Amino acid sequence: MSLQILGSRYSIIQPLGGGGFGQTFLANDLHLPGHPCCVVKRLQPRNTDGISLDSARRLFNSEAEALYTLGNHDQIPRLLAHFEENRHFYLAQEYIQGDLLTEEIHPGAQLSETQTVEMIQDILTTLCTVHDHGVIHRDIKPSNLIRRARDRKIVLIDFGAVKQISNQPLDEATPYSMTVAVGSLGYMPNEQLAGQPCLSSDIYAVGILALQALMGRDPKRIPKDPTTSELMWRNLVSIRPELANVLDKMVCYDYRQRYANARAALAALNQATAPSPGTANHPNPQIDLTSQALEAHVAWLERADELFEQNRFHEAARCYEKVVKVQPNATTAWFKLGMALDHIEQYALAVEAYQTVTERQSEDYLAWLKLGKVRERLGQYEAALVAYDEVLKLQPKNYWVWADRGQILEKTERVEEALAAYDRAIELKPDFQLAQERRKQLLITLKRVDELYTLQHYDDAIAACDQALKENPQDATLWLMRGMALENQQDLAAAAIAYNTVIRLQPDDHMAWFRLGTVLEELGHPKRAAKAYGNVTRLQPHNHWAWYQRGRMLEQLADYRAAIAAYQKAAKLQPTFDSAQTACQRLLGKTLSLSSVR
Hints:
56% of the residues lie in helices and 9% in strands. It has 24 helices and 9 strands. It has helices at 50-70, 113-132, 190-193, 199-215, 241-250, 262-273, 291-309, 313-326, 331-343, 347-360, 365-377, 381-394, 399-411, 415-428, 433-446, 449-454, 458-471, 476-488, 492-505, 510-522, 526-539, 544-556, 560-573, 578-597; strands at 5-6, 10-19, 22-29, 37-43, 79-85, 88-94, 98-100, 145-148, 154-156. Strand 5 and strand 6 form a beta hairpin. Helix 11 (365-377) packs antiparallel against helix 12.
């Protein structure tokens, strides 16, 4: 496929891949500032006769609507647009930068039990949203999962539902005829192979993914019981029995014996892998069990704890020092000593105490967190970041620590990293006001208008535009963003002024002309709107939507001949543009009626 522009918007950069259902391309979105990358998927029905194409079109539109709803989830690529062109169906989706899970899961590569559990927990958590909407993914496998580069989360891509248009036309009497070939062998359960997938079909695929990760074996090479068709895998890998029971249920041959949906499977998985009750945060300190040492250790520790509870931190610190002097390996005492010293603002000594804990218990996230806080108070920002990074290795979903990390990065003027940290905190907790406010203030300071607009902070985007325009009043992009933000705020008159400014600066900016036409239409100025749309068609003669919008305005102005010509042009450019066809026929009929009356 040669380089081209699809849908008057997406400029193809390069192909990403292809198969029986169509092709996928990397593209630039020409309608957004900076022309960001996105993914465009081309899907082509095998049967293109009228009935088949209409059935495929109905299904494509309904599935695209489902994908649009699901795209509100952070780990599902957002659907940016769907359109039809030359009997091909196109999806434009968010571009996810990262590596396919095929880099981690493939024959010969075995993941640990912990790695596998974390992986399927991540996938099931996303799948909960999919299943809550009644949507079946149908094609969960390593090549449809991306480990996102910026935060290592797993993103679920390539929903099998939209592939249905590539099969036989929908038969109302046989509602499963469109789904027979959707899926991948090895990951498809028997009911999906039969063309009748259900929510638990996805659970089977996730279970197979887990077994593949644990065993490092191709799914098609997992042995089956010849009598029951159940998978025989338990003797091939050593994991805790509770987890094995969950995986067994996920991959049951009979879908009725599996977990009904992702939420049920995730709950069972979390229960099976939860820490045993009574597990302490800190292991018991290693102490010298000679009677004299033990007696001294216990006495000083009890006294220290009593003083700490009374907020007598100076005295508590002295007692904890006695404890660690008698028993240098008493890790809990070192931790409490650090907290006491922290309270009396002896931060340098607190650092030594917390460091002692982390050296002996490197997986103690709380000690790393306390160490980071103390380092931050001392102004040792780089060392604090190291400590926070250790916390995040142990607790990657600790949104408070992500925010703490962001604030340090902000203080050290590492702006991009700070924004990424705040983004991560908000991803983990969408209503996290501290991170939201810090990110917003940083974007305002940096005059990042496009990002403020994307985050729907329209007032702040306008304010940032105004600040930036003081320095560069001839920046057409800033005026365009200002207009779009004002339009979203329904301040249409001010938006029209902004768009007119863009046109004065860049007379050939087709997007500004189009937005101006939309605003003028809403303000009730069809003549001026028709002129604006006319300028779009002058700049983009193949923009069928602009021709259609111009036709609507001309029709309102009772210029029927020109309106018909505009509708005909739109329909010629896009033969499947039903609205243009209908409007043209309606207006032709109207003009004939008027002629006969005369």
